[in-house]
Amino acid sequence: MSIPLPFSMRSRRNQLRHDWINERLREARIVVADVVNHSDHLLRIACNLLVQHGETPMEREDARILLVVLDAKLLRRPGYHGSEREGQQ
């Protein structure tokens, strides 16, 4: 069981958590804005974050559409048959 913190310490911890989340969202937006210079894997992580936690419905929808585009790119890859993604061999 944790020790109850004074009100000011709890609010400070909440503020730090809020700041940390905002920083991660900012980084995700930077990655998505610079698609050409980032790996598909990093783009997927950023898009998933924005789909779940984006500020506006438009931002969430744009991230979801980019995920669809990344999936289409994956399916066009030579030698890819879809079994890798489903865990089949």
Quick structural overview:
By secondary structure, the chain is mostly helical. The chain contains 4 helices and no strands.
List keywords for this structure.
4 helices; elongated; mainly alpha; 89 residues
Could you characterize the architecture of this molecule?
This protein has 89 residues and is an all-alpha fold. It has one domain. It contains four helices and no strands. The chain has helices at 7-33, 40-53, 57-75, 83-86. Helix 1 crosses helix 2 (40-53). It is elongated. The mean pLDDT is 84.
Number of strands: 0
Category from helices, strands and their pairing: mainly alpha
- Total domains: 1
Shape: elongated
The fraction of residues in strands falls at under 5%
Distance, first to last CA: 47 Å
Mean pLDDT: 84
Query: Could you tell me the radius of gyration in angstroms?
Result: 18 Å
Give the biggest beta sheet: none
> With helices defined by DSSP (H or I, 4 residues minimum), what is the helix count?
4
- Written as H for each helix and E for each strand, in order along the chain, the element string is HHHH
Low-confidence runs of at least 5 consecutive residues:
none
Helix content: over 70%
